[in-house]
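Section: Multi-chain targets

For targets with more than one molecule, the full set of components is provided together so that the structure can be written out for the assembly as a whole rather than chain by chain. Components appear in the order listed by the source. The example entry contains two components.
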Amino acid sequence: MISIENLKKIYNHVTVLNIPGLQIPTGQSFGLVGNNGAGKTTLFSLILDLIAPNSGSVSNNGIIVNQSEDWKRFTGAFIDESFLIGYLTPEEYFYFIGELRGLNKSDVNQFLRQFSDLFNGEILNKRKYIRDLSKGNQKKAGIVGALIGMPQVIILDEPFANLDPTTQYRLKGIIRELAAQKNTTFLISSHDLIHTTEVCSRIVVLNKGEITKDIQTNTETLKELEAFFSKGILEEV
Amino acid sequence: MIKTFLSLEWKAFSRSASFKLNLALKIILGIFAAFYLVMILALGVGVFYMLKEKNLEPLSTVNKYLVYWWLLDLVIRYFLQKSPIMYVKPFLTLPVKKGKIVSFFLGKTAVSFFNIYPAFFFLPFSIVLIANGYPVLQVLSWHVAILSLVFFNNYLNLLIDNLDRVFTVVLIVLVSFAVLQYYKWLDITIYSTPVFQAFYSSPLLGFAMLLLPLLLFRYCFSYFKNVLRTDEAVQPRLKDAQTENFTWLEKYGTLGTFLKNDIKLIIRNKRSKSTLLISVLFLFYGLLILTNKTYESETWRLFAGLFVTGGFLFTFGGFVPSWDSAYYPLMMSQNIRYKEYLTSKWWLIVIATCASIILASFYLFMGWKIYLAIIAAGIYNIGVNAHLVLLGGAYVKTPIDLAAGKKVFGDKKAFNLQTFLIALPKMLLPLLIFYIFNRTWNVTAGYLAVAVLGVLGLAFRNKMFRIIQNIYKKEKYATLAAYKQKN
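Its structure, encoded as tokens over all components, is:
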């Protein structure tokens, strides 16, 4: 579904991302882990054509993202709060995105029904604009916005951060369920190793802009990852 | 501490993504300001002798008209003096006294062109007065009183920006004065001249005027310090959300979706709401210019027409796509074509311009020739300028903080010098065309030429859109990066 070739991003002579090649097949739940500054958001921004690569290319379903806009039809994303329209109510925001993806109001309402647990009664029909919601609730609205219309590719940057534990569990359930029933490709980044190993079938570790590990998730994955991220620290102790 | 604040200010300015544009605008403004300062200086030195020659007593004559200057100064300040912006949130948890933050903020407003330019008139004028044998103490007290009025305006303007009730009171007072004066029911100079004269004749009163700005400063200080204390400065009070459906727009497909959003954008944010208000005020700009004998020529009529019909075009259109700056990454990754996005903005501008042309029909009372000029200008605005503002917008790249209206130290002005400077070049071309055709043939040919240009612009709409679209695409990454810098 997504294929990356020789992708390089350089800021002020520092290479922040360098990926010679990466293939993400259709329907895979792809997890991206790494420390701060490892290049996770940079990679997602490149896939969404929000920044320009210095060399190489990203193609989404065969479409090179910085040459044609056609990939936008089947891609949904939530990176940060700049994906929210603050002066709309959550409903209006969902309808807006729904209309752009060819869904009418009742389609959207039907789709939203499955998220009533996640919303916990704090999002819909609250007569509040998104800008007045709490950080966590804004995040919920943004994530659900990215799911509307079930695009074939869904990109979520740090979806678990800022959410309360209950919501984190619910969100994990939703992602797993959606990934299983439909042929949706999920791209998820996180600092949280446990969440990522639970949700994703494949995990890639980014370190200083380069892929250092690429593993299919199994029972040993979490241990392997924990060992990787605590390596230096354990030696010091 | 002040040094730290100042260095932060400088960093905010020099490291901003729109630094080049800001710098260019500042240089242009600097040239304008220098020009005006020289003129004012010349007036300050010369006015004494000019009045003397006409056998008028210089000081009392100046005193007679001072009230107009003072009120006008306030109005000009309201439109042009930018209220300084400060991002206070990071300081609130640091060991900085709140009083320090507020006094720096208030002190900053004092360092402004609008507080300096009066000195260029009153300083030389006072010196000339003393040189001509007027008593030093009395001239000094008069001077101090005027200075006090200048700073009174400075802080009053700050309150007008921040407190709606002050704005309303000042507006009512000013408008009623203007009406009384216009219909000659009351001449305020009769009442004001003795007051200004008293600053000179009784020095005690003149020096006592110092209390005025000081008291206002104290009030501003306590007001801002107080708001800084409550949640309001940091977290605005919530209001129940209105929900409008605009279902009638749904039949226009994606275009309707965008229009719906744009209408909500305009009516739900303070900054954009005041833009709408300003564009209504533009409608009346013609009254100002067309009733004045100096502006009787047809070229001025066309100039007025461009302004009257272009209010929304210049104040809103000039800042597309900055209105969407807060969620530009969303717009860039959603299933949206540039063409659809631009078309919806274009329609919004065109509808507003058409509405302005219709609303401006009251100018018919001033003669159908004036309305003809307005129609020609309106067609030009729709056909050519509507495209040009969208084109120029790609390069503006100043993020608009829609929520700023709610912040105490935020930028609340919808109309500022930047808007004006960006709009000005768009007026020159039609005026030039008109001038040429008017000179070679006649007035009708001039208006016709301007209108035909507008129709041509409409005919080549698709071509224009393709060009604009390519520029937006080329600027996309730079724009995204610029909008990321919120403060």
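The longest helix of chain A spans residues 165-181.
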